[in-house]
Amino acid sequence: MHMRTTRLCAMTFAAAGLLFTSASLAQDRSPSGLSPVAPGPAMAPEKIPDDKIDATAAAVKKVSAIAENYDQKVARAPVDEKERLVDEADKAMTAAITDQGLSLEEYTTIIRVAQNDPVVRGKLLQRLE
């Protein structure tokens, strides 16, 4: 479970980085300890429906807020509670994504496409403003 949380956080920070930097700089600014997410299945940028981009933007906002909240909780928590908090964060982030009608695979794939395709990145950025 911890790896999935780490991957979700990495993707969320990468998506948030789209707001401030180019895709290459966003990966360089990932929090320490988080490695870039391995490439997944390809999705043609022109085949991503607008409603999926809308859902991804909404999920990014929610996942970012959850990650920030839990990062603070985990940092302050006693060692014996950190694992439980990480599991809670994982469930909350997963729910934030699936509540938008996306699978985890769709979410991460759309974020990856946005990192590499300026048209998709632009659409996502518009919705994140």
General form = elongated
Number of helices: 6
Give the % helix: over 70%
| Termini Cα gap | 31 Å
What is the strand content? under 5%
Unreliable segments (pLDDT under 50, ≥5 consecutive)? 19-41
Query: What do the pLDDT scores average to?
Result: 76
Number of strands: 0
Offer a concise description of the structure.
The protein is mostly helical and 129 residues long. The chain has 6 helices and no strands.
Written overview of the protein:
- By secondary structure, this protein is an all-alpha fold.
- The chain has one domain.
- 72% of the residues lie in helices and 0% in strands.
- It is built from 6 helices and no strands.
- Helix 3 packs across helix 6.
- About 18% of the residues have low confidence.
Jot down its keywords.
6 helices, 0% strand, mainly alpha
Q: What is the topology?
A:
Elements: H1 2-17, H2 23-28, H3 50-76, H4 79-98, H5 104-116, H6 118-128
Helix pairs in contact: 1-3, 1-4, 1-5, 3-4, 3-5, 3-6, 5-6
